[in-house]
Task: structure prediction
Amino acid sequence: MNLIVAVDKHWGIGYNNSLLVSIPADKKNFRAMTTGKTIIMGRRTLESFRDGKPLPDRNNIVITTKKNYDGRGAIVVHSVEEALEKARELSAEDDIFVIGGGQIYKQLYEQCKKAYVTKIDYSYRADTFFPDLDADKNWKMTEESEEQTCFDIEFTFCTYDNLLLEKE
Result:
């Protein structure tokens, strides 16, 4: 299982249930990485999408505690364990991506083998954060792209490996 996330300098990922910034190259990378795969998210992440609809060409799994929640075509589950079970029924382990939000990342990031992180060289106002993988001895950055620029925003695409799961 993998995760994909965009973070600012302080590992911020969102504010008021929205992404901190929209970078076309990041969106393109996200689409390329997740299309045809299974994605796991929380209810608020689904609701942040255009019209609150699941992303096309993917198996969308939404975790919520709301019992009669209408996922508008997404598979609705009520626990992390149920999400993992359903994801593994639908896809190979390498074709499962955790896509947010903050609470879902916190519950699942240690179970992911790889983290695909868009690192944005700017500090935004954020109320939701991702764990700092640079400070976590169990994670190691194994790839970093050349620095890219979108208007005045500089960013890189990084891959981190979970050292605890590397040998599996």
Q: What stands out?
A: Residues 24-34 form the longest helix (11 residues).
